[in-house]
Amino acid sequence: MTDVLSNAMEHVPVSATRPSFQMPLEWSVATALSLAELAAVASSSAVVAVVEGYSTPSVVDVGGSSVRLRFPVPKEEDESMLSASASIVIGLRHRAMNATWIPAVAGVPGHHPDRAGLSRVGLLETVVMARPTVKGGVTFLDEDVLRAWIPQGQELELVPLRRLDDFHIDDGSGPWLRDRICITASQAEDFVAEHARAKQKTGCDIGQLLLGSGLRPEAAVQPPPQDEWSLARSGQLHRDCML
User: Fold this and answer.
1) CA angle centred on 155, ends 153 and 159, rounded to 5°
2) Is the pLDDT of residue 162 over 90?
3) How far apart are CA 122 and CA 110, in angstroms?
4) Can you tell me the distance from the alpha carbon of 85 to that of 134, in angstroms, rounded to the nearest whole number?
5) How far apart are the C-alpha atoms of 34 and 196, rounded to whole Å?
6) pLDDT score of 242
7) How many Å apart are CA 200 and CA 138, to the nearest integer?
8) Residue 35 CB contacts under 8 Å (≥ 6 apart), including other chains
9) For the chain, what is the HEC assignment?
């Protein structure tokens, strides 16, 4: 199935990078693969989500990139991790091609409205962990790759893996948001630490993670998204924007 899928999908190239000082987000490949394997096991609980947009100004400000997804609102009696505000780790994959899973961390705002007072129930913002680093690790996909890999309106499968923490509305911008993203990613590492240590001993690489996902690693090394310092120097910082 993976070989057929690999030939059928258009693979978006993913360059390597060095995570920035302000957004030092990096997992081992073993961590990412462990989470992807958990997503495959839990695939029967997946829901369909639609790409609504990409990085909010607040995520851009802290040197990050994200994709915003809309999912069916769980019923009140459901105990889904998507039914209340939370910081979670999830798996994502292309729906139509039954692709392999890619891990991500996400914030589910739940009942917290956006800065315009509009409801964010049924929405989440996701940082997708599938870009190789020059040290042999994994960091987040930049927005150009996200737009090419999962265009706006694309249907995906989303499977929640673990509720890691609350969704803190006060962490919606600036260094608080950066810290929240990094803390959530660290909590996801802890969640699969034992599995990842065992996998590390068997050897693993970025090609295993991306195989059959619609992404492929390329040898080029490109800079990460501009971080807070660079944006401030160039006058591009959206300091007054909320997540």
Assistant:
1) 135
2) yes
3) 7
4) 35
5) 6
6) 39
7) 14
8) 89, 91, 103, 129, 161, 188, 191, 192
9) CHHHHHHHCCCEEEEEECCCCCCCCCEEHHHHHHHHHHHHHCHHHCEEEEEEEECCHHHHHCCCCCEEEECCCCCCCCCCCCCCCEEEEEEEEECCCCCCCEEEEEEECECCCCCCCCCECCEEEEEEEEEEECCCEEEECCHHHHHHHCCCCCEEEEEEEEEEECCCHHHCCHHHHHHHHHHHHHHHHHHCHHHHHHHHHHCCCHHHHHCCCCEEEEEEECCCCCCHHHHHHCCCCCCCCCC
| Helix pair angle (193-202, 174-191), 10° resolution | 70
Can you give the pTM of this predicted structure?
Answer: 0.86
Cβ partners under 8 Å of residue 47, min gap 6: 71, 72, 82, 157, 158, 159
Give tens-digit pLDDT for 50-64: 999 999 888 888 889
Confidence of residue 98 (pLDDT cuts 50, 70, 90): confident
By C-alpha distance, which of 116, 73, 89, 154 is closest to 243? 116
pLDDT level of residue 21 (50, 70, 90 thresholds): confident
Task: Count Cβ atoms within 10 A of the Cβ of residue 68 and give its class: 0-12 exposed, 13-18 middle, 19 or more buried.
Answer: buried
Q: Residue 136: which of 31, 23, 36 has the closest Cα?
A: 31
The string of pLDDT tens digits covering residues 198-226 is: 988 888 999 999 999 999 999 999 988 77
| The pLDDT of residue 6 | 43
Token output for 74: 């769980």
